[in-house]
Amino acid sequence: MNLLYQIALLLGICKCLTPNGTIQIKVGILMFYLDGTNDLADEIEGVFVRISQLNQNTSLIHPNATIVPTLLNNHGSKAQLVPQALDMALDGEIFIFGSGYSSMSIISSLILQNYQIPMCCGSSTNPTLGQKALYPNFFRTIPNDNAATLTMAQYLAFNGWHKIATINTDEDYGNGAISSFLNYASQYNITVLSRQLVETNVDANAANQIAQQIISAEARIIVYFGFAAEYEVIVQQATLAGCYGAGYFWIGTDGLQQMVPTTAYAGTSYLFPLERADGPVSDAFDAYWKANRLGVGNPGANVSSINSSGPFGYFHSSCVDLALLGFDALVKANGNNVTKLAN
Question: Which positions carry the signal peptide feature in this UniProt record (predicted)?
Fold first, then answer.
């Protein structure tokens, strides 16, 4: 049998074989960007840039094969995500990238596993997603929240900061992260002088109360587990109250990714997982990104001011490597079913 037809059968989608003898390997990007912002634009660009770069590599899969990405933007709506995941499953995508946040990836995985479609995310950190019995088709290229909160506890202890205040947002990410952190904090003799819970869409009055509680507890080290939108309101009020700036140290984890690389909050330190290693692959990716970022077809590129990979661009681009290099190995091993890719 002709190799092209073998690959077409392997994909399970004969329409991937075009009349001119080329192969289109369809992959889906189930993420969102909010109009007028750069929220998740860096992650989406990471996928597009790496796909474009790998399409120049004729040694992968087959010289006539082209990776064709489709982006569906759900604008952060779980209600929109469900039909989009179903559309991609039925449209013949063999791999899905996304969905940006853990709560969205959980939904995507549950839907896509029914169609035996693997997916990968470079920014979903909920430890639950690591349970293969529940999410057998989900992969990620970023450490989970347990690793991040352990690192936070170790960092504080290393600096001799054993009395702190914590703030966490009242949603899955914030509640899960603070719970994990408190388990490690006791192991490193870290005492929480003040623990504050912040509602999503917090207003100035509530944020001011949090700042006053920090002052009352005489805490100088403040650790934040949550997202940037709530943090910005809290910092504004903490600055007015006098507990943000000289004499105080504020630190947050990867939930604050949207604030990078802004310098508006120079008094905040960020503890992010290391994205990349030095070497020729990273150097080539950086060079390709800078030369081609506006020409790779990412609809979100026009809202991003990032001229090189930002906080999570590398993690998401590594998902592309995981998918396509794995698929390449499957093809060259004469695999007979695309569902084997998940194994």
Answer: 1-16
Complete DSSP assignment for 179-235 = HHHHHHHHHTT-EEEEEEEE-TT--HHHHHHHHHHHHHTT--EEEEES-HHHHHHHH
Phi/psi at 281 (5° precision): -65, -45
Residue whose tokens read 């499953």: 89
pLDDT, one tens digit per residue, over 95-107 is 999 898 899 999 9
Q: What is the pLDDT of residues 125-149, one digit of tens each?
A: 999 999 999 999 999 999 899 998 9
2, pLDDT greater than 50: no
Amino acid sitting at position 324: L
User: 277: exposed, middle or buried (C-beta count within 10 Å: 0-12, 13-18, 19+)?
Assistant: exposed
Q: What is the pTM of this model?
A: 0.83
Residues in Cβ contact with 78 at an 8 Å cutoff, skipping those fewer than 6 apart: 103, 104, 107
pLDDT digits (tens, 9 = 90+) for 312-340: 888 999 999 888 877 777 767 765 555 56
Tell me the C-alpha distance between 310 and 323, whole Å: 21
Is beta strand 268-270 parallel, antiparallel or unpaired with respect to 249-252? parallel
